[in-house]
Amino acid sequence: MRALVLIAPALLPALVLASCSPSVDAAAKADVDRRGATFSASGKRFEAPTAPTPMPLAAGQWVTYKMVDKKGEPSLTTLNVVGQDAVNFWYESKAVALSAR
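Above: the chain sequence. Below: its structure as tokens.
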């Protein structure tokens, strides 16, 4: 019993640190892998726009960015324009990453 009392305090920090490490969410990994597979370099070249102003924002427009971290794990961020109120726009943002932090 005395040996257990001496070992328990030594194990506690290790258990706490192990529980704080990021874990990979299997459902998120499957979703990112499935959606990320549709991203590929097309080899197309896009010239600079001829007009100095960008296309005007409108509800329904969206963009998805694929990013890869230092460990090579991908994540996806999608930005949607979901509405307009006078001159203001409503955005929706969704980020999907493999590790749950």
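Helices lie at 2-20, 26-36.
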